[in-house]
TrEMBL record:
DUF1707 domain location: 20-72
Protein name: DUF1707 domain-containing protein
Stretches assigned to the Cell wall-active antibiotics response LiaF-like C-terminal domain: 120-179
InterPro entries in the record: DUF1707_SHOCT-like, LiaF-like_C
Length: 233
């Protein structure tokens, strides 16, 4: 009898992390990295489409990682413990119905200046143009969803430089472009842009020199000065 014989391996050993079945949230995370890489010029449109198709068909976490292993963003997210901006709002967090609609049909419409966007805003440009400028907006909600539909028109969205900006949309013989932003501030507003451009244009990007903190500080100073003038009288 061999007393030194190793025990037989059990069938219930730990499964390596790379062999775990991936979830929809895992696929969304990889798709976000691929979308950002396309916007940064790291992937061509053909490479992006091919990898996204592979992500949709992937079964395990290891298979997903193969599609982003040559992209810097994938490694940065694994090795840093910094604050990660939230993803899309959970169902029920943001109402399905818009708080406001901005519509331009053979015309133009605009929202800009010191205004208060709700949790959901819908913008429609039909043979017209819509401008949504959030660079001086008062954010009462951390997460704001903008649905932009352009048909032979233009929807332009501008945001402060120190918020988080995300986008998921498409175009048919048109252009749908969202320049992603990542804010390091945990309480910074997060703007999600969705929609469709049909023979039109949807564009969302930061506005140079506009910061949420700077704007709020200036407003507070104006209020304090106005209050002091009132008390002096």
């Amino acid at each position: 009898m061999d007393l030194h014989k190793s025990p037989a391996p059990t069938a219930r050993g730990p499964v390596p992390a790379t062999e775990l079945r991936c979830s929809d949230a895992d696929r969304d995370r990889i798709a976000d990295i691929l979308r950002d890489a396309l916007a940064e010029g790291r992937l061509t449109a053909e490479e992006h489409a091919e990898r996204v198709e592979g992500v949709l068909n992937a079964k395990t976490v290891g298979e997903l990682d193969l599609f982003v292993r040559d992209l810097p963003a994938a490694h940065a997210r694994r090795t840093t413990a910094a604050y990660a901006p939230p993803g899309r709002p959970a169902p029920g967090t943001v109402p399905a119905e818009p708080d406001a609609n901005v519509v331009a049909v053979f015309s133009s419409a605009m929202r800009k200046g010191r205004w208060r966007p709700g949790r959901r805003l819908h913008a429609y440009a039909i043979f017209g143009s819509v401008e949504i400028d959030l660079s001086e907006a008062i954010f009462e909600y951390q997460q704001v969803v903008i649905k932009a539909i352009s048909v032979f028109g233009d929807v332009t969205i501008r945001v402060p430089e120190n918020i988080t900006l995300r986008g998921t949309g498409g175009a048919v013989l048109g252009n749908f472009e969202v320049s992603p932003l990542d804010s390091g501030e945990q309480n910074a507003p997060v703007v999600h842009v969705d929609g469709l451009a049909v023979l039109g244009n949807v564009e969302a990007r930061p506005k140079r020199g506009k910061l949420v903190a700077d704007i709020l500080d200036r407003v507070s100073d104006k209020v304090d000065k106005a209050l002091r003038r009132h008390l002096d009288h």
